[in-house]
């Protein structure tokens, strides 16, 4: 079986937000009457990218939030609900890539799990590079064709004007050891990624198909930001089936505890 050669989880600081955006769970974000006057829980919402190195090139999974988030998001109001206020200059994507010694010209593929503002926020960094920009066909169709400049967390300024290539359906061995998994629900074209490594074994990066361990369950607990709830539940169980079959380590999209348990850039990596 083909495997990737190295994987680096790139932590890019955190947004903060009301927990209810991420988790609709009785007793956690949904309070009982005894706590109806309790304050809302604002939590860290970490954001990360992943660099996968293979014999056929380097792949960057997602691009995190932009440094100019406050100005970029101002037309949408999202900066008031998801402020990217727990990230310093050394945690922005370009700084992180510099820290691990990877130039933009060394990245062959930039694969976007979906085109929300906190995943496609730095896509324009690759506009004048040789990197192939990749997302799902359904995500591209929606994200580039709604009326206006933004729709929910899709912000056209993040990704329009780029030359997008698309994939349709699940793609095994997109690169050696790298498979793309269609997991719609959060958005119409949300994808997850499985990476098979010689020593660490399979790792699945769920992106926002599963926000955190509390979302995964079982039973799965959805979030306030779901495009299609039926698809969302189906995608979670699809991922669970793959995990049960492969024994893969699950890396969730925005888990505030898990990010600190991983080997992360600039010091750590997986092989």
UniProtKB/TrEMBL annotation:
Listed InterPro entries: MBL_superfamily_lactonases, Metallo-B-lactamas, RibonucZ/Hydroxyglut_hydro
UniProtKB keywords: Hydrolase, Metal-binding, Zinc
Cofactor: Zn(2+)
Record's keyword annotation contains Zinc: yes
Domain Metallo-beta-lactamase: 46-254
Gene3D superfamilies: Ribonuclease Z/Hydroxyacylglutathione hydrolase-like
Highest taxon of source: Bacteria
UniProt xrefs under PANTHER family: 102 KBASES UNSTABLE REGION: FROM 1 TO 119443, QUORUM-QUENCHING LACTONASE YTNP-RELATED-RELATED
Family: Belongs to the metallo-beta-lactamase superfamily.
Name of this protein: N-acyl homoserine lactonase family protein
Lineage, uppermost ranks: Bacteria, Bacillati, Actinomycetota, Actinomycetes, Pseudonocardiales
């Amino acid at each position: 079986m083909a495997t990737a050669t190295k994987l680096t989880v790139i932590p890019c600081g955190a947004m903060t937000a009301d927990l209810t955006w991420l988790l609709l769970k009785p007793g956690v974000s949904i309070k009982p009457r005894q706590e109806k006057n309790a304050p809302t829980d604002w939590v860290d919402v970490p954001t990360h990218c992943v660099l996968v190195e293979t014999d056929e090139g380097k792949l960057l999974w997602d691009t995190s939030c932009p440094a100019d988030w406050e100005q970029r998001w101002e037309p949408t109001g999202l900066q008031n609900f998801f402020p990217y206020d727990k990230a310093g200059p050394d945690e922005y994507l370009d700084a992180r890539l510099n820290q691990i010694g990877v130039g933009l010209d060394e990245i062959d593929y930039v694969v976007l799990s979906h085109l929300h503002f906190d995943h496609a926020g730095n896509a324009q960094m690759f506009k004048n590079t040789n990197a192939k920009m990749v997302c799902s066909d359904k995500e591209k169709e929606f994200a580039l064709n709604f009326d206006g400049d933004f729709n929910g967390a899709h912000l056209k300024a993040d990704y329009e004007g780029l030359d997008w290539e698309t994939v349709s359906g699940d793609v095994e061995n997109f690169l050696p050891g790298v498979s793309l998994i269609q997991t719609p629900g959060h958005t119409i074209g949300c994808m997850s990624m499985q990476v098979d490594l010689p020593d660490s074994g399979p790792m699945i990066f769920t992106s926002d198909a599963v926000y955190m361990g509390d979302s995964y369950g079982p039973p799965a607990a959805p979030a306030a930001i779901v495009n299609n709830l039926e698809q969302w539940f189906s995608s979670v169980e699809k991922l669970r089936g793959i995990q049960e079959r492969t024994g893969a380590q699950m890396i969730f999209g925005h888990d505030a505890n898990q990010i600190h348990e991983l080997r992360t850039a600039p010091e750590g990596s997986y092989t």
